[in-house]
Amino acid sequence: MIALSQDILAEIAAQAEAEAPNEACGYLAGRDGVALERYPMTNADASPEHFSFEPREQFAALKRAREAGLELIAIYHSHPATPARMSDEDIRLANDPDTIYLIYSTPEDRIRGFTVTRDKRVLECEVQVTAETPR
After folding, report:
1. Is 58 helix (H, G, I), strand (E, B) or coil?
2. Which of 20, 39, 53, 78 could staple 61 via S-S, CB 3.0–4.6 A?
3. How far apart are CA 11 and CA 105, in angstroms?
4. DSSP state of 9
């Protein structure tokens, strides 16, 4: 399970709208399954069908999280024209079974979470949206 605030969800949705028709992407940092910070990233692929992070931004996000005493707990990206589900490419590129992969579907205005095992089985992860970000 991952918990994130309505504010963080609204920021993800706004980023997805602003970057459409390309996929928007980023990290969520937190602790104990609670997202406390969002680190929006540049989709280096500038594609509506896949994303990759800019390496310098990726390193900077990790550094910021560590300095704040947080861990990177989720990778999020948007699907600008499809449902919030793991695509074949999402599954193929998911290499960390400890990471939660969040997908925000712009047309559905919906977010869903997943984990992917080492043998590429996709498991849905509960996403709890809270009124406020706990501090």
Report:
1. helix
2. 39
3. 13
4. H
φ, ψ of residue 120 in degrees (nearest 5): 70, 25
CATH number at residue 15: 3.40.140.10
Which residue range is the domain that position 75 belongs to?
A: 2-130
Cα dihedral 84, 89, 95, 96, rounded to 10, equals: 0
Chain segment 16-37, per-residue pLDDT in tens: 999 999 999 999 999 999 999 9
pTM of this structure: 0.94
Token pair of 39, please?
Answer: 């680190």
SS3 for 114? strand
Residue 135 forms part of a structural domain: no
Q: What are phi and psi of 45, to 5 degrees?
A: -80, -20
- Which amino acid, residue 99? T
CB 49 within 8 A of CB 93: no
